[in-house]
Please model this.
Amino acid sequence: MNKKAVLFSILAAIGFGPAQSWSSDQELNIYSARHYQTDEALYGEFTRLTGIKVNRIEARDDELVERLRNEGANSPADVLITVDASRLKMVEDLDLFGPVESSVLAERIPAHLRTDKWIAFSTRARVIVFNPESVSAEQVQTYESLADPALKGKVCTRSGSHPYNLSLGAAMINHIGAEQTEAWAKALVGNFARPPRGGDTDQIRAVAAGECGVAIANSYYFARLMNSDKPEDKQVIESVRYVWPNQESWGTHINVSGAGMLKNAPNKEAAVKFLEYLASDQAQIYFADGNNEWPVVQGVVTGNKALETLGEFKSDTQPIGDLADKIAEAQRIYDRAGYR
Ligand code: FE
Model:
């Protein structure tokens, strides 16, 4: 086999279809809001497989978006990687993403986890964490239940204007309607143990310490504590319990880490090739495991210890694009409800 044939067979083996055209781009510029240990392997493998050199700029979401806006049509960025549907939607609304057509992505990424403009590559769940000394599991089986008057003075969350909570509100609008979501948000605020502050891990720690009876947190923060060797983290995990919310109804709210090709991408072929690479089995494992998330491609398993322990659950399958469409409304509802 010549060099090209060898490379071709490797690409075919990791899931690139035979119809794949050869990229003439030799470089790829990625703006990423993610950085984890496995990322080096993730990008290194792509270069090894395709010969395409990857240049990365890693910064906070808002910094990357600001940079893209300032660079405009002259931006060197080909791909943006970020987390949460609300942030991906914001970039979409700024008209920064370009359309991607790929049969590989259409085949490998479940339809509800992609839009015309961006694609989810891993998922995280928004779980309910409670302290069994002050709250029972039966009391907190659903997101809706957090508005129950019985939980007055016990609920903790991070800020309502944070993307994670806005996405949850957006998901609820689609499931129970705007009116019910607003009533829920008002009652939720009425149940707070303290004004929202800190991140999700802070809420879990506060539940363990007994300052809060129940909190909402993304699964990877919980998994991170589960995988931690630090005695103080082990203590936290021993003190709390978790619930997969809404198993009897619409399923646990999930959100995503995702990526899209930028409209002004100078290396569009390489960009599509990279997005397709992210959907390959090996890249799925690197990408998801880097942040204790779940791969989106069916049948791919990371072997992450904490995720194995957390087990299976029924997740919400509403199209992620439908959820993204309701984020602005969720913000207005939270504003009226005083959920800041
Ligand atoms: Fe996070």
Residues 124-253+320-337 form a domain with the D-Maltodextrin-Binding Protein; domain 2 fold (CATH 3.40.190.10).
